[in-house]
Design a protein that fits this description.
CATH topology of the largest domain: Rossmann fold
Radius of gyration: 16 Å
Strand content: 15-25%
Shape: globular
Oligomer: single chain
Length: 239
Amino acid sequence: MTTVGLLYPGHSAEDDYPRVEALLTGVNVPVVHTDIGEDAHRVDALVEMGSPARLAAGVEELRLSGAESVVWACTSGSFVHGWEGAREQVRALALAAGLPASSTSFAFVRATGEVGAARVAVAATYPADVTELFARFLGDAGIEVVGTHAGGIVTAAEVATWGPDEVLALVRGADRPEAEAVLVPDTALHTVALLPELEKAVGKPVLTANQVTVWEGLRLADRHGVWSDELGALFARKD
């Protein structure tokens, strides 16, 4: 059994993680909820949400769960710090946990490489300024962003109410012919059950926040080759 520990802000789409767990053999994904503070997709609120003190508060519970790696399961609460700030955030988390650590923002970078995509479209629920910061983060990693869609949603609570039709429309609206993958960065959005439908709709890999978060934790725990037919191209059997 491989245990991937997640620090997740508040309560929105955390039920995506038991879905992933059920579809993978020998994988345990305990979730510890961190204080979200002000529920706002605003840069200052997102910076505070990902502060070292808030992340460190949940670390002991994850250690007791037997976690072999820990991931800060929040995209906007990591990329808003910029590339170097996000790296420092992960370093501090690893030190506090005594475990390999990462965040969903870095998970997107590594997962994009895993599916062989150099050019991507971004299907974000965020306001335009926050979406642009994510595009900049990807650009700093050498990933070309060929188009972005900013949904303008300002709270995680509102995002969590979206159903399949809204998510499908978001992904279709963001896709570009030249994009080799579509990235959906909000961990407050329910996406795991929709991955096969989303990829069928655009005919290319779709990487979503809760999906890549678990994949990154497994990578850190050296659990390679975990696959499922229901979790998109990222988890497809490589042979």
